[in-house]
Amino acid sequence: MTQSSEPAAGSDEPGPAQGYPPPGQPVSATPGTLPPGPPQPGFPPPGSAPPPVPPVPPFGYRPVPLQPGYPPPGYPLAGYGPMVPLGIAPNGQPLANFVDRLLAYLIDSAILFGVALVVEIPVIIIAVLSLVHSQAVDADGTVNDASPAFFLAVLAVAGGLMIVNIAVTYVYHVEMMYRSGQTVGKRAMKLRIVCLDPGTPMTRATAAKRWLIGQVATAIVGIAGLIDGLWQLWDQPYRQCLHDKVARTVVVKQAT
Known about the structure:
Strands 1-2 form a two-stranded antiparallel sheet. A two-stranded antiparallel sheet has the order 3-4. Mean pLDDT is 76; it is low at 73-81. With 256 residues, the chain is mostly helical. It contains seven helices and four strands, in the order E-E-H-H-H-H-E-H-H-H-E.
């Protein structure tokens, strides 16, 4: 009886139909190669295309830690949120650098100082002359001790000048800035203040928040102004100062 070369049913032994020679026949293969065999679990079948390679983020991007509400670990990109480009604002414009912002601040400070001199020096001169003439002088030329009214007048002049300073800075940093997002200094350095959320318009309330933290609060606590201005050096990814964070704004660099 002729013995069939086909493998028995249920046998794991490969047969000619699977690309192997009959039993007893020597294997003839090209040196360095193996005869084809059945596909192994977890491997693509012979001749199929290789599996796709996951895309690599472009240079300059960084992952942002997951915020509450993102999928738990085990999902695609587990442990990472959206990819945020460094040096780019949410609206796609480049962020302003520290040097440009510092120069814009110095220009604005010089303008405000000049306005203060023009307004306050005449007021101070008039107030001093009025107070001097109001002092009583004896026949021998000596001046009597200053009365309480004299000190109250000095405090009134100082308080009035402080109110004028606050009003000038408010008009400059709020009323003028929120309409275009620029002060004179920022316009000279081609900078603009925009809201952190793209498409959100700049409002008077947003500009007032920046002014209250960046001008008023830092004027009361001197060291706070230094910390506020330097905060942008280590803040990522949007290089915000503290007054930017409170008002949810960023400063961008314009091409023109």
